[in-house]
Design goal:
The structure is a homohexamer.
Chain A (H helix, E strand, L loop, with lengths): L5 E15 L5 E9 L2 E7 L3 H4 L8 E11 L2 E11 L2 H5 L16 H13 L4 H13 L1 H6 L13 H20 L3 H10 L4 H4 E3 L3 E3 L1 H5 L2 H14 L6 H12 L16 H24 L22
Chain lengths: ~300, ~300, ~300, ~300, ~300, ~300
């Protein structure tokens, strides 16, 4: 989006407030969200009427023009109204285009997931993965990986899991680790998040998510599935449960047991790196001046954008 | 045991080594264990023959006399031989008398456990406790609570669990907490230790104990039992799982989730206090001179024996 | 207090500010305090005149009606004026009803305190407690236990001390600890707060409170009193001073010496639990939506209100 | 080496002590080192004469037979003498075969290093790497990576550096990082160790290694080389220095600045993983019974060998 | 500055905002800076015209009168305009009088610096100091010591360095440390800040400051200068580099190597004390009521102003 | 003491053990202590008879010759017997010459102490110091400053206190702090150690030392003395108590309150530096090879002896 372009689009309005300008004039300040991020909107004319046309939380159709303001783009809005889903679909309204989403296509990621499972040699592991994936396809396609920290958007869970798998398998081949275990660990380590979180556009913690946590919920999911597979070997079961339970790497990060196998160490490393780089990418993507980003409290440092 | 008494007894020999005295004489140094603790044994005569009569790890029948040595009692042994269980049982040999055990009677503790459960009002909680206790009676009667840290002896698990229940219920009545939940939390919080540890006189960690840990194993045990009880309420299930998962009180102590209810805070407090005081009693019971014990590394201080 | 009820009452006004509403209208926003907590007050009519009727910090007589606003009750005020103590007392004005106070009656708590002391067997300990209590009765009846953290209200000190005594004595009976020492420890552990804090409706730290701290001030108070009792035994004196000095349990929490006796460990546990549960109760009592409270920074977690 | 095999070989004797057996007999206990590790040696016959044939620290020629002892192999030595390098070389004595070494061939690793540099696209980076590698070839081929912690053997530096490069480049391709910077970071991050350590079979810290440390020494080496390359771009120089200075990832691990770019985060991750897995492999390779290794103090846990 | 004085002066305007008073009147709120600190300015009359006379960031000439407001002085401004440097210089405008500066005269401090160097006995150390000081005189005279933390004002670097030298030399004489090394350490420990920071009235971090940090940059500066001095002794070079690299005292404060000599321990102590007391003085100098300052987050406590 | 010198002397024997040499010969190994440190003693001849001439803990008269052994001097003893104090005094036996002692003369240190007090301007402070010093002269002259950590020898307390005073006063003059308060703080900060420790050649902790600690005991001593001085100003009293209570600088080091005044910060700094440098000097004084000392666990690093 560049400055001074006129047009219209569909957004989710996530913020709405009356403000007073320098000259005493009153205007309406909005935050609008689409798939790629957030943009500020301003309504300067016909404020009293337009403010009743929609509420915070509504999908809206907006017409206006972009303009530069303090080094950022904002949308000066001339017309705005609540979306009528049935009617506006014909004009291109898609609910999923108005919420943060993974930059990757869901179908493409799903195909990658299926292929990863197909490459598993160990029949018990493969069956375990197929069962869990089939039973949770609906959630797996759209779930976010977190409420705030990293991959906190539609299909972020799937994107994160595939990325961890890719890194873990590469590192595993370099260090002679068991590929099937790494695939299982990558795909299952966060599986408890399907119960830890609720998601319907916005993300929230469930009661079980708060009180039991995704690590323990994940082990229960995995154990339950393994019990349904006749003859699942004991040592294999324990190793997979260990991968889930130890994947935060250290007790103070919430893993009651720390990684005790090469596969568990690689998995915890790949998970930590992917979470960290997801935050880095988000921080680097934010607009701002200068070579360095603002101080990032969770990472405990600023980041360099490069020259 | 006081000095200069002659007699005989049955022991487990846990240590055996040839040593050289000040005058060049060779003797055999032993550590002998019975229910109440450890005693040093010394064989000064007929060493060459007696050393082949038994090995470390054997139950032995010992004849000798107590004597004071550097402020501690030791046993000067005249005769020693391996126990012949069938034959020596007639003379009073009991394997369980030769291993560290709780000072309380197992049957008395078991009766207390049954009564605690009987006092539970909430029918789902009561049924849950009955099922888990019935299914694990054999282990519950004799299991230790740990390999080293606290209550690390026969029936130490049961002793610890009852002690935590007593404290938690008292505190719970003072603070208006739910008694049934506290009973459930006290009896079930360490239930994963039945799978974390192996015990047959000596205590060891199982593979699952090392790789998955007793907190997660405990939640699985509890969840499995609750699934078998038709209509077990959701919120109740989650609260009980929360009690198990949060009972170490802090992440760095291995609880992936920290206590979020009054009952969970009381349970974690009662568990911590009982574990700490068990260590204190052991340290105070060790012989030694002076008002203060030696520095206790796990507690990070010495203890005062009083004037 | 439920919605839409008319009436009048006496309050302490702790906050007063002019604000502007959505339609440009100006109103007066107040915070009013009585014994049970805080309530928001709003003056929409006759603002200019009423704003001069009272100042922040005044006791006020208020007439108005309750109304719901964003899920909380607030008081829409029609009339308000400064309290005239002499005259308003006839109508029921009591200063102590307008400050946060313990939910328990002072006289009832005082009787409990006296009885606790009467049960002490050891004559030196009993005399010590009597002396200190008699010398400080006025403060002991009304003092808060802290400025912010826990029991931060009128008579909170007494409530806290009794609650710690109750827990410590129960735990002490379970673990065979000395009851007299526990009573002394519970009643005296925070005695330095009588000098650490100033209280006359609002709570503040004194110069000595900031620069010397209540643990050291408490030991001085206790030592001074013991010196006045002829023949007070040395070991007993040191044990009581140890209870005071170690009651925060760990160096990083401000105890220069950590608990080295069973009584000191129990006291530190009971104190910590009572402080924690006081905060939990306050957090749970705050209005709010959903099953979980807001994140509680001092406890480092949210709390569960239950289903 | 399996039990009961006769033969001879060359070793470095790193330990030598007279001991007394159970029957009062005196024997000579040795530790012998070759490329693959350590083996215990025992001399039971002709002890007085053989003990003067060599000293600790000598290369020795040994003849004897392997035998099992407490579950480990040891060498029962019949003949032993100091090596005569000139003469024994004909029989196959190679000094480098008698010190711990990387399992990989030096020449193969060197070729891999050269090829890595050849793949660098950025001409300044490539020239920088070539200069530093050429100037330090002798050390780079044989240097260990540490005195104790990881890759603490001949050519361990080169093995570590190549392993980090492989992981970092794989992760870099997954996350779209700059390959040339990652190659430079991997090859140069520990370059200060060429001055931090001294190595001539045994490894020691130099004065500068102790007082200045390899991170700062590494930046000086890199800066010095860059100053000699005309026109080396400023931002590129700073980025490479940042990779060196931040590669320990956190201040408490000795990096005065923490990683602020994607490349720096990947490099620190790859370095940490390689160091950790080097320790894991060493721990798993140690002989021992049971599924789990002994507790590993530096990693803070035991490791699982698998079923 | 006392209340109710009329006059005029030159300032740097660092803040400028329109605000609304209690009665709906609009005024202009400014922050004005001169050498000694900040003062609030208020423009109540002729606001619309005066607001366009200058911008935030301008040097301004101000006429007005001081008045007390909530216990602080503020400046009620009648006339204000942008400074015209050439013309206003005649009236006494000096840019350096309008920025925070050390309370000490630059020339006096410079003379002290030169004398310190002249007292160095060791010829290599003296030459090193002379070279670095001569090469950086311009920066050394005006540089601040930090952006925020301590001595964050014009010539703060020089003031800090001299203060550390004074303390270190006194302590050094008490403990028999090498005076020349202490002088070198005091003058050079922060030398990397000349490249870590940019300063032209306002202070900012450079790219190298962020990515490499002043400790490493300082060692490079010192090493470079020593290489230009023929015959500089090795051990002396390493000791000076050690002083620079270890001066933060602990790894978690960013020193990759901790002090290993008496001189390094004294230097780190003197640096820490001076930084701490600089913050204390600033905190004590801030206006405020009561014996205690506000809580100081970086020091983690409040400070006592005295009775 | 250099090698191969014959002579005799008086020592305290602190260690005595029979050992076996390489050739099977038995000898007696001793540790002998005099004022300056420890020396190893060996008795090779007439062992059986000489071993009964004295016990560990005895003062002994020794005749022998020094010899080098593994780079250290040891004493090869020909004659040894228990000291007869009355008779041997004529030959120069002085008990205090056989225990570790400060290198400074007690009388000289005492004179310095008296002079420090005489320089105090504030009459209340001066009287306080005089009272406490007069009342404790006997202990103050000979007390050690600790059992192990620093200044752990006869008169170490006095040496430490004077050294802290010297540093604190120098720093105080540089930073404009109150000299009288610094003198008081330096002389009184460790005064509680007179009750924390027992000393009669060997040092031990008292019951109060363990259970109450020297910081709290110190405040009690100081408070008690101040109460006896009519009209001692409140703020002055609190400031001096603050100096005592805060002198460990941080809560985790056992100060329940952290330094809140310039004087308290300087005192904590001077105390920490003196304790640290005392340990450094001890470590540097230990014999050993190489430029670096062994790793010093309490300081967490090795130290550099210089070239």
């Amino acid at each position: 989006m560049s400055a001074d372009i006129e047009g219209w689009g569909f957004y989710l309005c996530t913020y709405k407030e009356m403000r007073q300008g320098r000259k005493g004039d009153v205007f309406l300040a909005l935050t609008l969200q689409d798939k790629t991020g957030l943009v500020a909107g301003r309504i300067f004319n016909d404020v009293e009427r337009l403010r009743d046309e929609f509420d915070r939380g509504d999908f809206v159709k907006v017409q206006g023009r972009t303009e530069a303001h303090n080094g950022r783009l904002q949308l000066s809005i001339e017309r705005i109204r609540r979306v009528n889903p049935d009617q506006d679909r014909a004009q291109g309204f898609r609910e999923e285009e108005c919420v943060f989403s993974s930059a990757r296509s869901i179908d493409e990621m799903w195909a990658e997931l299926i292929e990863l499972v197909a490459h598993v040699q160990e029949p018990f592991v493969r069956e375990l993965l197929q069962r869990i994936i089939n039973a949770n396809e609906e959630k797996l396609r759209i779930w976010p990986a977190a409420q705030i920290v990293h991959h906190a958007y539609r299909s972020g869970f799937l994107e994160h899991v595939l990325s961890v798998a890719r890194s873990a398998l590469m590192l595993g081949s370099a260090y002679g680790a068991d590929k099937d275990l790494l695939t299982a660990g990558a795909l299952l380590h966060d599986i408890g998040k399907l119960e830890e979180l609720e998601y319907d556009g916005v993300t929230a913690y469930t009661r079980e998510g708060n009180l039991v946590g995704h690590i323990t919920l994940g082990v229960i999911t995995v154990r339950t599935a393994m019990l349904q597979i006749q003859g699942f070997p004991d040592a294999l079961r324990t190793h997979i449960e260990h991968l889930v339970v130890s994947h935060h790497g250290r007790k103070e990060f919430g893993s009651p047991v720390e990684p005790m196998t090469i596969e568990a160490i690689i998995l915890a490393t790949a998970d930590d790196l992917d979470a960290k780089l997801s935050q880095v990418r988000t921080a680097l993507a934010e607009e701002g001046e200068g070579e360095f980003t603002a101080y990032h409290p969770r990472l405990g440092r600023a980041l360099w954008r490069g020259e």
